[in-house]
Amino acid sequence: MRVKRRNRLITVSFVFIGAAVAVGLMLMAANENLNLFYPPDKVVSGEAPTSTGIRAGGMVLAGSVQRNSENLDVRFVLTDYKGSDFEVVYTGILPDLFREGQGVLVQGQLGEDGVFQAASVLAKHDENYMPPELEGMGA
Amino acid sequence: MSFDSVESFFHMGGHALYVWMVFGASLAGLVGNLINLNRTHRAAVEAAAREPLVSEEEPS
Amino acid sequence: MNLTELWHRMGSPRWFYQMSGPWGTGFATLAVVLLVVGTMWGLAFAPADYQQGNSFRIIYIHVPTAILAQSVYMMLGVAGFIFLVWRMKLADMLLQVMVPFGMGVTALALFSGAVWGRPTWGAWWVWGDPRILSMLLLLFLYFGLYALRAAIPRAEAAARACALLALVGLINIPIIKYSVEWWQTLHQGVTFTLTEKPKMPIQMWAPLLVNVIGIYCLFAANVIIRLRGEVLRRESGTAWVQEVVATHDQARRGHSGDSGAMA
Lengths: 139, 60, 263
Hints:
The structure holds three protein chains of three kinds.
Chain A: H1 2-29, H2 40-44, E1 53-60, E2 66-67, E3 73-79, E4 85-91, E5 103-110, E6 116-124
Parallel strand pairs in A: 4-6
Antiparallel strand pairs in A: 1-3, 1-5, 2-3, 3-4, 5-6
Chain B: H1 6-11, H2 16-50
Chain C: H1 3-10, H2 13-45, H3 59-86, H4 89-97, H5 99-120, H6 130-151, H7 155-169, H8 172-182, H9 202-234, H10 239-255
């Protein structure tokens, strides 16, 4: 009985470890494709494909948002604060959480000129929550 | 209390639809779960009562 | 009593049934009290977020259900492992009774996440987001465990298949956890852990803690009450179950009807 149990323990452990290694290797192989979006450095370096539907993300550079006074056109710059940034043009209503200095994700096409034509803009928020009266206190 | 009035509580600063949708679904889930649990034991006893006695031996 | 003896006793369904009577009702009551307090606190008294406003309150459902979705699955995986190696009956029963609750909280975590995503991100659902995908896979694993049990008529074969699926599915758990660190995703980082300082002030964090403890109690009540039912079902026909049924009948005649429903 004891030998049988030990054999089962070994078999089960091997099956589990084998499966875990297989999944791990698959994830590593597919690593790049699992990213939801291209960060600014990949967009600038040309690693992000142009003229096809992609997602890109970054922080909205403070002071870069230009709204057209006649229509819903808006232009802004996405940056990683490490020297890579690119321009985005978008027509439509921005999400409530869209703010300068905030992370956003844009879906659309990257033009040959390096300007991103966004079809939609999603706001990314971080895990820091605080009440309005504490804002700016770094709580 | 973080709201001035009952109306503002239900209004949720314009996010009423989202907030109440989630909390409504959760309440339904909790009530459903409790009703279900209440039935579980009774159903099991009734089912066991219908089974004839199989053997006098203790289960291992 | 030595350890081996304790181990065998714990594996005895009869021992469990006799021990656990009041625990199910106790945990269910505690769960309702905690969840009502935590939810009312979070809905009406906790402050709104400086950026998200009141949609932030969805956190009080989303985070507890998401935590349970994962920790229930971890327990399933461990139960599966114990059953595969030691063939302990109780492990298989646990494997069976934990699935519906896990499925429910996972569905609620995904639903509340989708609803929360609309006002904050600007989208109900983002296909390709690693966190969303791995949580969806978790829901399918629960569906799979439920369906597998129903699909295999031989109880022993069903138990082994479910145990193996539960164990292998465990690989998804670190993927869910680290999906927000390994890959670019729209989902924010970890909000709530017991080991680190929370990233929100106490008046936001306290109701969340109450709800997390409350939902763990609800899970405990589910496990205990369903396990008691499952024990009776699987052991029906044995002398001790007949005894239980007989005492139950007497008690019922004594109290004319609905007593002992959850006891």
